[in-house]
Write a structure and sequence with these properties.
Layout (H helix, E strand, L loop, with lengths): L7 H15 L5 H9 L6 H16 L1 H8 L6 H15 L15 H12 L2 H4 L4 H11 L3 H7 L6 E5 L6 H10 L4 E3 L6 E4 L9 H4 L3 E3 L2 H10 L6 E4 L6 H9 L5 E6 L2 H14 L4 E5 L3 H5 L5 E7 L19 H19 L3 E11 L8 H10 L3 E9 L1 H4 L4 E8 L4
Parallel strand pairs: 5-6, 5-8, 6-7, 8-9
Antiparallel strand pairs: 1-3, 1-4, 2-3, 9-11, 10-11
Helix pairs in contact: 1-2, 1-3, 1-5, 4-5, 4-6, 12-13
Length: 405
């Protein structure tokens, strides 16, 4: 956390980002990109700005309650929110022009009230608290609290370029402090506020930024050199590149998605990583899937989901229309699992994954699929809980096709 207050200009930048996210509906990463474009801030100051913005979004309802403002008024009352955030963390107030002041006596009263309301203290909206309690039962309070904390920075050592220990040594020379992550053989925990993407190690493809939990998902694919592997919901391609490293660049790795721009970005990342066996293919229609029936040794379905396991990293999702979208997402997951599983050949393995911790998107989906598809059998599954691991939350299930039908 900060040891001294934000500057006035940094405070205004935080308010601008919050306004874009909360009143204009912009995703947090795009709001950062828009506001940071052309800025000459030092990396350490940008890190401070993102730290404050992220913490406010993770517990937005708490901070708004403490200073008695409404989320929809953030553009007008953002300075009051920033002052309240600094008070909460026992920091001097930032020097902002025309800032709205906080009534310290009222703040203290509301602080005591909030301490007696665990969900509010954890920055959890009512809909999410009800869902989490219903889905996870006694495990939910710990998860709720963990999701209110700041995410760590993890990277994956690219074994196509070198070992994790070699990467650690390279980064040490570039003044980046790292710690090996127990239980995730490819992961390093970044312990300094370094500008990772400006390092020579990154430019030369020695690592990718990827949460340790996400690395466990890709590791479960267990792809071997020479296999035919499909990452059917590749997105930005973090798991695709991890699988390419498993395959040692040998065999055929097909990355598929419904959005061409994501695949175009993946091509750039694959070249930097030396992942020369990655092919990309747009999913134009159901025919794209039908033509690949019974052809793949491994299929990864990292399906669209609520993202309720990665709220530390994407806290703006708490304040979007997730409750309304969730039933639609569950149906989409069901359709993708049923349709895309046709690509797995007999003896091949299907890996279903989400970045959600809710059973309705996870084991319940898998159980329903297996009940309707007896030609698949469950090998194992894992729920990566945030409180238990410290990583982002994920779910994965490995299923083997034992017959054609």
């Amino acid at each position: 956390m900060l040891t001294y207050p934000l500057s006035g200009s940094s405070s205004e930048l935080v308010i601008n980002v919050l306004t874009m996210v909360l009143t204009e509906g912009k995703p947090l990463d795009r709001a950062y990109s828009h506001n940071f474009s052309g800025m000459q801030y030092p990396p350490a100051e940008l890190a401070r700005i993102t730290l404050v913005t992220g913490d406010i979004l993770r517990r937005l309802n708490l901070y708004c309650y403490l200073v008695d403002i409404k989320v929809e008024d953030i553009e007008r009352t953002g300075s009051k929110l920033l002052n309240g955030w600094h008070l909460f963390h026992d920091l001097d107030l930032p020097k902002m022009e025309y800032a709205l002041q906080v009534d310290s006596a009222q703040f203290a009263e509301r602080l005591e009230v909030a301490k007696a309301q665990p969900a509010l203290w954890d920055g959890c909206p009512e809909w999410l608290d009800e869902l989490g309690a219903a889905q996870l039962g006694e495990k939910w309070p710990a998860e709720r609290a963990a999701l209110a904390t700041a995410p760590k920075r993890y990277i994956r050592a690219n074994s196509l370029k070198g070992t994790r220990e070699e990467l650690k040594q390279r980064l040490t020379k570039e003044l980046v402090a790292t710690v090996e992550v127990e239980g995730v053989e490819s992961a390093l925990d970044i312990r300094s506020d370094s500008a990772l993407f400006k390092t020579e190690a990154f430019k030369q493809g020695y690592f990718e930024q990827q949460d340790a939990g996400s690395q466990l998902v890709a590791a479960a694919v267990d792809a071997k050199p020479g296999m035919r592997v499909v990452d059917a919901c590749a997105g930005a391609g973090g798991k695709t590149l991890h699988i390419a490293a498993q395959m040692q660049g040998k065999g055929r790795l097909l990355a598929m998605d419904v959005e061409q721009w994501k695949l175009d970005n993946l091509k750039i990342r694959a070249r930097r990583a030396g992942a020369h066996n990655v092919e990309t293919r747009i999913i134009a229609s159901s025919k794209t899937i039908k033509r690949m029936k019974l052809t793949a040794d491994r299929v990864l379905l990292d399906v669209p989901c609520s993202g309720l396991g990665v709220l530390k990293r994407n806290p703006d999702s708490k304040w979007r229309d997730t409750p309304e979208r969730l039933p639609v997402l569950v149906e989409l997951q069901k359709d993708i699992l049923q349709s895309y599983s046709r690509m797995v050949k007999v003896g091949g393995i299907l890996v279903y994954a989400t970045c959600s911790i809710m059973p309705d998107e996870n084991r319940n989906q898998v159980d329903a699929f297996l009940a309707a598809n007896p030609h698949f059998t469950l090998l194992d599954d894992e729920l990566i809980l945030v409180a238990e691991h410290g990583f982002d939350g994920f779910y994965l299930a490995r299923m083997e096709r034992i017959s054609e039908v």
